[in-house]
Write a structure and sequence with these properties.
Length: about 150
Amino acid sequence: MGIFMPTRHSSKESQDYARKLAENLGIKFAVIPIDQTYNMYLAVLEPHFAGTARNITEENLQARIRGNIIMAFSNKFGWMVLTTGNKSEMSTGYATLYGDMAGGLAVIKDVPKVLVYKLSRYRNSISKDIPEEVISRAPTAELRPNQKDSDTLP
């Protein structure tokens, strides 16, 4: 099961690529927008954050909302959640605790990001399941406008 949880910062391309990947893998796919939940979090925190600039705190709320939703599916249906962080992200702290670090199995936690790309290309040499755009586009968490991972992670 693949679950795409967009916010205002999520691109149409990301959703299209996620849907295509799910189709190629023959798995179910659901879209659960999280903007309404994100806005409620911001409203609850706003009086306490008054006078401070928005920063990584507000960005990470999105990842944590996604972590809660995906864990709800896990609890409801007995599914195993796969943590998405790779070794490069985990070792540099470029993963959100209770967000993209949530899950029961961290399949690529010991795989450096460079090797994730190599493995993806290798997988596609067997069968073109991963949309090429997923491999070739610049990595982005899409937690703020025009974000690229390279802006904050070498």
